[in-house]
Automatic annotation (TrEMBL):
Residues 30-414 form the Mannosylglycerate hydrolase MGH1-like glycoside hydrolase domain. InterPro entries: 6-hairpin_glycosidase_sf, 6hp_glycosidase-like_sf, Glycoside_hydrolase_63, MGH1-like_GH. The keyword Hydrolase applies. PANTHER family: MANNOSYL-OLIGOSACCHARIDE GLUCOSIDASE (PTHR10412). This is Neutral trehalase.
Length: 425
């Protein structure tokens, strides 16, 4: 096993951000439990404390809705350092939560944690996995019924926050159609913790909150939201993560002897892979989203274009094309992969999802490259990520042109990524 120079510091960050069985991404800026953050964090914990890894996922599903949705925020304890809080969301769950979801990394994390538990001989692991498996299955059923009601084999986001890539250039055109009027008073807290030049703009927030207002007025009912949504994107990043998590749940179903569930998951998996495969654009050497309001492809280059590698086996021509495209994105960068390439007119190397490098995105891209036989490129990306963290610290994201750490510091999923990726390099 690789001994990492900052392993102790990474573990200390997870301990510092522990709030009693769940981990906040970082203090003050993100003071609650976030969905996909916790899934990545659980995989980090699994390297040295499997019981705590299980607990991370168990605390997350405390917020799961009866219809299966896993919200993107669970408000376990009050805090006044974040907007919008539970009063704005107005959901009626037994624990306060947001009303939207986030990338479903949960299934990937559960397989990772279960396998670590089996390897460590942890008592009671199988029963804990079974309960979490059923929660994951309910979530996947929700995804396909609520977010692919038309059977495209692609799941959609109804809010940019659901993608995890809040202010991605991919949303610019679709988001411009969303009004800036809100019935909620906007009290941004993020720019009190992080320089405004690294965060979404005020206009973005007005549109984000307009969408929250719209869906709250729908009573958070999925069918009403689908009908009312002014923003509706079939997202290849979300679909790919769901497909990868579905494959991991299929593997778990087999090990748990859950044959009926494995068959159901297999049908889901086939549907998602068929949908993803249709989003490949050979002339662009990448996968593209679909705007369901306009009916048009979104060919804006962002990191989402490469996440399908984590779910699909590419043919030789696709593999050559996509690795060459990633190399193009890495050219001239101190650290890659940027969330938008330097050759894009939308590129802003310091502004959130408009250029900066995210350790967990590199984790997914490297996983996809390894699945597709591009081990050397995967290793380069992993090594570069680890080196950037060692130089700049456990920051939320990094400037690809300088390697400077940006956003929040002492960030939980960056610490988890450091430990996981560092063992591969």
């Amino acid at each position: 096993m690789t001994t990492l120079p900052k392993e102790e510091a990474a573990r200390a960050i997870l301990a510092r951000n522990d709030r009693g069985g769940y981990t906040v991404p970082t203090d003050r800026l993100y003071p609650f439990q976030w969905n996909w953050d916790s899934a990545f964090v659980a995989m980090g914990f699994a390297l040295f404390d499997v019981d705590r890894a299980y607990r991370e996922l168990e605390r997350l599903i405390e917020g799961q809705w009866d219809d299966g949705m896993m919200p993107h925020i669970v408000f376990h304890a009050p805090s006044d350092t974040y907007f919008p809080g539970p009063d704005v969301w107005g959901t009626r769950h037994r624990i306060p939560t947001s009303g939207i979801t986030q990338p479903p990394v949960f299934g990937m994390a559960l397989r990772h944690v279960h396998e670590a538990a089996v390897a460590s001989g942890l008592d009671g692991a199988t029963e804990r996995t079974k309960a979490l498996f059923q929660a994951a299955l309910r979530s996947h059923r929700w995804w396909l019924s609520a977010r692919d009601p038309e059977g495209l084999g692609l799941v959609s986001i109804l809010h940019p926050w659901e993608s995890g890539s809040d202010n991605s250039p991919a949303w610019d055109e679709a988001l411009a159609r969303v009004p800036t009027t809100t019935t909620t008073t906007i009290r941004r807290k993020d720019t009190g913790h992080v320089d405004a030049s690294m965060r979404p703009r005020d206009e973005d927030y007005q549109r984000f909150i307009h969408l929250v207002d719209t869906y709250r007025d729908c009573g958070w009912d999925p069918k009403r939201q689908w009908a009312a949504a002014p923003f509706k994107i079939a997202d290849v990043q979300m679909t790919a993560i769901l497909a990868r998590s579905t494959a991991d749940l299929m593997h778990l179903a087999e090990s748990l002897g859950a044959e009926d569930e494995k068959s159901e998951l297999s049908r889901m998996h086939d549907r998602l892979l068929e949908g993803l495969t249709r989003r490949w654009r050979p002339e662009l050497s990448r996968f593209v989203n679909l705007d369901l309001i306009s009916g048009q492809d979104i060919d804006t280059p962002t990191q989402a274009a490469f996440i399908p590698l984590a779910a699909l086996t590419l043919d030789d021509a696709q593999r050559s094309a996509v690795t060459a495209e990633i190399e193009r994105w890495l050219d001239g960068m101190v650290v890659g992969v940027p969330s938008a390439p330097a050759f894009s007119p939308a590129f802003e190397p310091k502004r959130y999802w408009r250029g900066p490098v995210w350790a967990v995105v590199n984790w997914l891209i490297a996983d996809g490259l390894r699945l597709n036989g591009a081990d050397d490129l995967a290793r380069r990306i992993e090594r570069g990520t680890v080196q950037a963290i060692e130089k700049a610290g456990f920051c939320e994201y990094f400037d690809p042109t300088t390697g400077e750490g940006l956003g929040g510091d002492t960030f939980s999923w960056t610490a988890a990524a450091y430990m996981v990726l560092g063992r591969r390099t």
